[in-house]
Design brief:
CATH architecture of the largest domain: 3-Layer(aba) Sandwich
Strand content: 5-15%
Distance between the termini: 35 Å
Order of helices and strands: HEHEHEHEHEHEEEHEHH
Number of helices: 9
CATH superfamily of the largest domain: Aspartate/ornithine carbamoyltransferase
Number of domains: 2
Bound molecules: aspartic acid
CATH topology of the largest domain: Rossmann fold
Helix content: 25-40%
Length: about 325
């Protein structure tokens, strides 16, 4: 049995202080060096178990958490909702308790319902990382985006980031706005009125409904049109959305960088000529996802108060 110990989770960006965010970004930078070595595995989390519980589809988040755990020598197991007992109607509580019997150190969970990760955190002894809950939060995406921006622009303070598109259904946007505020950057949301959540200004960002507002930004952050979460028609047509808000080469000013969390709807919210241009940081974001998730696992599992014999961060 594990002794009583203080537990920290990463359920939302508001679990992080500014110092936490910078420490994780610095750790990720150190870990990135380990990816240049011939042998890429570090012994840091040997004997630990990281369990990925994914109730929604994922490419980048799941693959990077799996690889992150492996690169740190943890054992890792992945359970997807389809093909498991979830298909047979098992409740989240029963699934969580079943998996808790394996005594995982970390459970990484993605779920369509807001608050599911908080529920698992209360129901098990594991440290829980929210890998996306409905349209609520996706804190590791925010951290990897901050990492990408800092590496590309050399700073975060006062960086202007225009977040363009379907903010209403986007956990990425919510987490990113909070993350940018945490590190002293300036978020601006640019979207048609129907795709802006009410009260988002209260999170500390400006809002514009005009695409030319992106002209002042250092970073143009493009969001996917999340048609699977749209119960009604939020825009007259995708074609009209694209003509008013799609990010084309003509709309990107020299010196700006462009980001997108993936998966992209090429030709809808982003023109392929922009996605594949020198201004695009989209593949850099994917690489950042790996090192930032390694840093998050490292940070959670080597926190003061947790019993790690000798935390090793050997990247020399
Ligand atoms: N991959 C991101 C997420 O899971 C963004 C998206 O799906 O549009 O939230």
């Amino acid at each position: 049995m594990r002794a009583e110990q203080p537990r920290r989770h990463l359920l939302g960006v508001d679990d992080l202080t500014r110092d936490d965010a910078y420490r994780i970004l610095d750790t990720a930078r150190a870990l990135e060096r380990s990816l240049d070595r011939e042998v890429k595995k570090l012994p840091t989390l040997r004997g630990r178990l990281v369990l990925n519980l994914f109730y929604e589809s994922s490419t980048r988040t799941l693959s990077s958490f799996e690889l992150a755990a492996k690169r740190l020598s943890a054992d890792t197991m992945t359970l997807r909702a389809s093909g498991s007992s979830v298909d047979k109607g098992e409740s989240l509580r029963d699934t969580a308790l079943t998996l808790a019997a394996y005594d995982p150190d970390v459970i990484v969970i993605r779920h369509p319902h807001i608050g599911a990760p908080h529920f698992v955190a209360a129901a098990t002894q594991a440290l829980v990382v929210n890998a996306g809950d409905g349209k609520h939060q996706h804190p590791t995406q925010a951290l990897l985006d901050l990492f990408t921006i800092r590496e590309a622009l050399g700073r975060l303070e006062d960086v202007r980031v225009a977040i363009v598109g379907d903010v209403l259904h986007s956990r990425v946007a919510r987490s990113l706005v909070e993350g940018l505020r945490l590190v002293g950057a300036s978020p601006l949301v640019v979207a048609p009125p129907t795709l802006v959540p009410r009260g988002i200004e209260g999170m500390g960002c400006e809002v514009s409904h005009r695409i030319d507002a992106i002209g002042d930004a250092d970073v143009v952050y493009v969001l996917r049109m999340q048609q699977e979460r749209m119960a009604a028609a939020y825009v007259p047509s995708l074609r009209e959305y694209t003509s008013l808000y799609g990010i084309t080469p003509e709309r990107v000013r020299p010196g700006q960088v462009v980001m997108h969390p993936g998966p992209m709807n090429r030709g809808v919210e982003i023109d392929p000529r922009v996605a594949d241009s020198g201004a695009s940081l989209i593949t850099t974001q994917v690489r950042a996802g790996l090192v930032v998730r390694m840093a998050v696992l490292y940070d959670l599992l080597t926190a003061p108060g947790l019993h790690v014999a000798q935390p090793v961060l050997e990247v020399a």
